[in-house]
TrEMBL record:
Domain Glycosyltransferase 2-like: 12-166
Listed InterPro entries: Glyco_trans_2-like (IPR001173), Glycosyltransf_2 (IPR050834), Nucleotide-diphossugar_trans (IPR029044)
Matches recorded under Pfam families: Glycos_transf_2 (PF00535)
Name this protein carries in UniProt: Glycosyltransferase 2-like domain-containing protein
Superkingdom of this protein's organism: Bacteria
């Protein structure tokens, strides 16, 4: 008789830095339903002092918890500490200010199939005083982008990754303060043959801070994302091609935003999209990366 299938094990990984919201995140993980295999929660504290330890150890949860002190104020250091500590079949990623839907982990496991990673949506939760254009454009939410080649990169705000597919690869510490380290990481793995899938049913929600409800903040974030994306052109030896493409797309976005100046939502969307392409061009021209952390 064939042996029964063994339920997969999962290490749920959370990086944290001085956020009391970690308590709600951990509670939402403990509240997961439909998960059969063994689950652990690994928390990497990026603060210089072990400030999150009482939050992790203070109340016993449903799943075993492991606290890791990974100081440096460099998020790549924390992410790598989690990878070093993980021993499960899968590594799930969620941020310390997010709340997982009750079926989040089960939906990720159902979606991944024989792929190496699955990425679920992050729903932005806006305050009551958010500007109307913010609500309509919803630029703070995140979802997997499906291209002709499928999903070619990802993020750590909502993901499930096959641990064997990671191997010895790690997040770049050089990007640990500027951000975009997760995009670079998954783009690099994709270039090595890993394959991804979207998991639209595996949702988490994230409150949007008031200081992020501005065009300036969104432009800044998109510009930084472009700087990270530029690394794919550098790695492929296509710096010149990438520069020409980015400048053309940035010009097109600027032109269209002028044409659609009467449409506040479309104009702002195009401006933010153009910032991404400007970031690509800037990085390829040698401009120093923006620092977010």
């Amino acid at each position: 008789m064939p042996k029964p299938a063994v339920a997969p094990s999962v290490d749920v990984c959370v990086c944290t830095y001085r956020r009391a919201s970690l308590v709600q995140t951990l509670a939402s993980i403990d509240a997961q339903v439909g998960v059969v295999g063994a689950v652990r929660i690994l928390v990497a504290d990026n603060d210089e002092t072990p400030s999150a330890k009482p939050l992790v150890d203070g109340e016993a949860g449903r799943w075993p918890r492991v606290y890791l002190h990974a100081p440096a104020r460099n998020i790549s250091v924390a992410r790598n500490a989690l990878l070093d500590a993980s021993t499960a079949d899968f590594v799930a990623w969620i941020d310390d200010d997010e709340i997982a839907d009750p079926t989040w982990l089960a939906a990720l496991l159902a979606a991944i199939g024989d792929h190496d990673a699955a990425f679920g949506p992050v729903r932005a939760v806006y305050p009551s005083n958010a500007p109307d254009w913010i609500l309509k454009s919803d630029l703070h939410s995140t979802r997997a982008v499906e291209t002709r080649q499928g999903v070619v990169t990802g993020y750590t705000s909502n993901a499930l990754v096959r641990r064997a597919a990671v191997g010895r690869e790690r997040f770049l510490e050089a990007l640990g303060r500027s951000g975009g380290e997760d995009t670079e990481f998954f783009t690099r793995l994709y270039g090595q043959g890993r394959r991804y899938v979207a998991a639209p049913e595996a949702s988490v929600s994230e409150p949007t801070a008031a200081d992020r409800l501005t065009l300036k903040w969104l432009t800044h974030r998109a510009f930084r994302a472009g700087q990270t994306h530029a690394l794919t052109y550098v790695a492929a030896g296509q710096r010149g091609r990438g520069l020409v493409s980015a400048m053309a797309k940035a010009a097109a976005c600027m032109g269209l935003s002028t044409v659609l100046a009467w449409n506040g939502v479309a104009r702002r969307r195009l401006w933010v999209r153009g910032a991404l392409h400007r970031g690509v061009a800037a990085r390829l021209l040698g401009v120093r990366d923006l620092q977010l952390y």
